[in-house]
Amino acid sequence: MKRILVFMVILMLSLSVFANGVQEDTAEAYPSRTVRVIIPWSVGGMTDVLTRPIASNLEKQFGVPFVVENKPGGGGVVGSLEIEKSTNDGYVIGTTSMSTVSAKYVSPVYPDIHNVDLISQVITIPATVTVNADSPFMTLQDLIDYAKANPGKLKNSNSGTGASAHIYASYFEAMAGIKVNHIPYPGYAEAVTALLGGHVDMTNIPLPDLSAYVDSGKLRLLAIASAERHPAYPDVPTLKELGIDVVMGNYSGFVAPKGTDPEKIKIIDDAIGKAMQDPTLRKFLIDAGYQPLYLDHTQFANVITDAENQLEYLVNELGVEFVDD
Amino acid sequence: MTKKNLDILVGFIFFAFAGLLFIAAGFMPTREGGIPALNTGFYPRLLAIILAVLSVLMVLEAVRKQADSGQVEVWWTTKAAMFMFAFTIVLLVLYPFVMKTFGFATASLLFITSLTWMLSDKNNRKPVSIIIVSVGLTALLYIIFKMILAIPFPHGMLI
Amino acid sequence: MELFSMNLYLSGLSHFANPFMFLSSFLGVLIGIIFGALPGLTATMTIAVFIPFTFGMSPYISFAFLLGLYSGAVYGGSISAILINIPGTPSAIATSLDGYPMSKAGRAGEAIGISTISSTIGGFLSVFVLMFAAPAIASVALKFSAEEYVGITLIGLSVIAIISPGSTIKGLIAGVIGLIIGIVGLDPITGFPRFIFGHAELLEGIDSIPVMIGMYGLSEMLVQISSAEYKVTVEQKLTKIVPPWKDIKRIFGTVIRSSFIGVLIGALPAAGGSIASLVAYGQEKRLGKNRDLLGTGIIEGIAAPEAANNASTGGALIPMLTLGIPGDAMTAVLMGGLIIQGLRPGPLLFQQQMPFVSSIFISLLLSVVFMCILGLLGARLYAKLISFPKKFLIPAILVFGLVGSYAISNSLFDIWVLIVSGIIGFVFRKIGLPIAPIILGMILGPLFESNFRRALMLSEGNWATFVQRPISLAFIIIVILVLAGPTLLKSFKKTFIHSKGV
Questions:
Q1: Contacts of A5 in chain B (CB under 8 A)
Q2: Residues C425-431: contacts with CB within 8 Å, 24+ apart?
Q3: Which of B134, C81, C293, C474 could bridge to C92 as Cys pair (CB 3.0-4.6 Å)?
């Protein structure tokens, strides 16, 4: 029995050595072997939940495994740097969000979105202006009037100093001409809890993390920061309509290490575009609270440039400092 | 060294560490006009002060213990044990490098085989059982971490 | 009221006609126990790596499996704490304080038996609380703001001071060292990077799991190697695995008290099992009948943290299911598993997905039953495992620690953290500093600091906020009682007896 076991193990080991050895690419058939998908966030997180079904859809389209690897740490910094360093043979792709762009303003070690090639955007996540349902503020005007009369009194919960919700809050603050008291929490969930418990007055956390409480009547949306009204909340005005020219929010998309063959990027981009048309995948994403919005690599580049300009404006023109240094 | 002297020495080391921490915390940014407790360096400084006080208390406690306590617990019972200790540390430090260059299964196999070999009695080394156990354990690791959990290990030259 | 209709409890029953529900729950518990007990594999990681497997299963079957994993892994964490002094989860740290001494005395089987029974009772109690009081507890948990979290972490920290064996000063120093390790990383409030030395891996601080495996597991192995102890194997008595009635009666009060502590503290988002088991152990140290023997290897020392630990599993599900807020790292991952199934945890879950919520209750009950059976059946086997020759056992434990550390965030950095902590732990053991306070300080420190500063931000610098809020005030009084209780009691008795005498 023992001998058989040993034999099996040796066989297994030698087989996998072989498997590693066969790695020749043929240019015409891409992808012809396993593609690694690096997610700089942990299992079960927002990006993970939306990336896995897309990866499995790609698997079905190409007939090769798309293996998801989570490389969490440093709020996405560790994994994003890993993507930058990976080989650009087309067999490594990764995911990105606004934090890859904003990291340089908040972190001493940071990735650069220009060190990777864009593939496509898959979802968009609009920021909001939200209060507790028991709050006296019925409209955005109420909130702004109060804030102008009592500068620095409104407590705004965010997802951490320099993290996305803090950036939205600072931008909203600057554009609305008010001053709020930024209270950092470790993440979206904790920041929303603080608002639910009435420990803070408002938040700018994006819609997917609030929608369940809005639907159950525990929170009230005063405004949404997207370009157009949200289909599920047609009564909620956009900030733009209310005279505050702010369109802000996060996005999630795919990138490849710098220098990946544009042909290969095109192949993956088209496949993601096709995946995003898939009704089951769309339904899954919408049910999970996301807003699917596929953009190809050129359109995605515009989104990134907008985000960069917005941050640039915030930091250089308005002089907002996210962190002490 | 007696236990008493060791405690005094350790107390001084912690005191010095607390001093370093206090100084380092002083270089952290402060906000003008804010609440002092909200500054980045406040909490590290607070901990540094607490540690300093505790280390002074530790020294005092040791001094007051008279010359009672016996010798300090030996670090290594025998020379052979000290050698074993050093060998284990070297193996541990090599592990991540081997894992990176050759792969995790190779690193684990080498680690287990060499450590088991060293820990076995010189007169009673059974190479066959050592190899069987090492390969078996490595296979178990491979099955659990690579096949079941699909952990993305570094892509080494081997596996 | 809708929430309390019988429907909530019965509507999921029909799904249990499917034998796969039992099978997946059983498999979940089995895998959970094994993985939780293996040094280097933690409960959080076990759940995380199995979630992708459940992708494509029905939510009922997938959650029967995941909840089995969850209960099994939390319970399994205590097995390695007892047998080899490596807590599988931070919440099993308190278990190792009495569990490992028992195992060293050849009573490992008995210790696992006690742990199984206490875990089972704690688990049952928490499921019933979850079923009948979840919404009520959740609304209380919402009232907890930063001030209250400061209070609860202070209670946890004060317990560290009283549980350390030997010199209190050394225990406190170890605790402060842990708090100092907790400073590393981005400042939670201002975002300034503290002591990261250019490593992106340190931005979020040092992960407590590799430090725990290093300081407990690796350093223990190094001690055994350096003292040539590896040549001795402790003979394990394998009788008394199912605890006799007399023992159950002895720990019954402890288990019930600890279970309630576990459910309540477990229900606080972010506080979770590690504080719960610590507080349960602390209350035993202050109120228990055999408090003076605690730490030498007595059954109360296992019963208290284990009951609390497993009771907190149900507790941690309360905020997740009712509010959509995870109670700890493990439920955070479980929540991801729910979302993958297309279910949004939160206030609407109870209203819209009643059969599912009902099946969660039943799955949890099932997993507690399986945990009890597998625990008692397996105890003999586990205890036998450590009777293996040390020359094989030590390399096996070390290599699991190394690979497990890598697998936490798939990074070589954590292997270095493990090795360095192992060496530091070795030195600390030799100079007589206890290990438990370091790990607990490291876990509680960031929680304390961020909430402390957040509370001051919320109150705009008003320090009185800590005593103006009633729950926070109550916690601070508890802290004072924990720390100064015996002294206060003594002086009270003295004056009382004195005045009576005069």
A1: 136, 139
A2: C425/C214, C425/C215, C425/C216, C425/C218, C425/C219, C425/C222, C426/C218, C426/C219, C426/C222, C426/C223, C426/C226, C428/C174, C428/C215, C428/C219, C429/C219, C429/C223, C430/B73, C430/B75, C430/C223, C431/B6, C431/B7, C431/B10
A3: C81
